Amino acid sequence: MNYFEYRSGEMFIENLKVSEIADKVGTPFYLYSSASLAYQYTQFKEAFGDLDLLICYAVKANTNQSVIKTLGDLGAGADVVSQGELRRALAAGIAPEKIVYSGVAKTVVEMLFALETGIYQFNVESEPELFQLSEVAASLNKTADITFRVNPDVDAKTHAKISTGKSENKFGIPWKNVREICAIAAKLPGIKLVGLDLHIGSQITELNPFEQAFTRISGLIETLREDGHEISRLDLGGGLGISYEGDDFPPLPREYAEMVKRVVSHLKCQIIIEPGRFLVGNAGILVSKVIYVKEGEKRKFLIIDAAMNDLIRPSMYDAYHGIDPLKQSDHDDRLYDVVGPVCETGDTFATNRLVSPMNSGDLLAIRSVGAYGAVMSSTYNTRPLIAEVLVKDDEFAVVRPRPTYDEIIGLDKLPSWLSK
Prior knowledge:
Lyase, Ornithine Decarboxylase, Chain A, domain 1; TIM Barrel; 2 domains; globular
């Protein structure tokens, strides 16, 4: 369902005109829809019916406290990959018993904090991590519930930089070595093996890679049970894609859930799902203003006040994002390169893109930026992090203020020999 729509030629978010928010907040800024977050979570939850399911929102997709709390209030847990994300989830009210900890490089300090917090499980990714966690847990006289993240060597058919389930990727334990490492874990103090985990990548737009991976891990669980291990949880990770271009249609949650039930429900495990992009991606837009319209020798440029430091995905992944005016035009679309002010040729949001004709001062929306937008932003070129705004029906709130230049520069501290 689209919560960003045109009414009488003006773009609305829920029941507010986007241009009126822009007048009050100033551009550029991120803008999120509470209704969209709720809709995405609810359809995912309902698709699984009465299956024993824990949905853990992948916090890395969007770490804003208001986004995490909106999903948490609906019943979501959290999938975290750092102590910072764990602290964010706790601060937003997520119960420790609904938090899973992923990531390939958990430090001793992070393990200590997570164990003292009492999180639900650690998704262990290597033998050295297993030994380290055993030592830390035993030193606290605690037991860590763990799943092993399995690398099933399955190609997710997604961008190379967000594919995580092939043998050459850094993530997880090779599936052929799982029996061996589970046998080791069973003998270690402070460790309780409760299940298996996998995550084969992000922005996956077909079911077949999921089914291949889930089938492989299902067989592993049956083998591990024959070996005497009590396997009660199966963490299937995230990765379900969203539509960016409008004509690409990833599987629906209902279709994904039907496949999951068909492939793994016979195991009678609790199923853990870690959606991120699916929940938040299409819930956000980036609102920006045209600064100049520049006529090049071969191209026409829309130079806007948002930049690659605000949204890095087009530069990093060659990612496509829809670009639309906040006010519709009766004129035919024109070809533009949509670019930002940063001193990099890579500061480009679209090349040779058909966009509604625009002039200096006009406002536009870059769509589908709720995931991996604000979280990957920086202050490159000493540009302040842009504001984040959340809407609920006919109300809005700034949920991350734009810092001042003094606040940014004040983070630097001069050493004594330069302070004289």
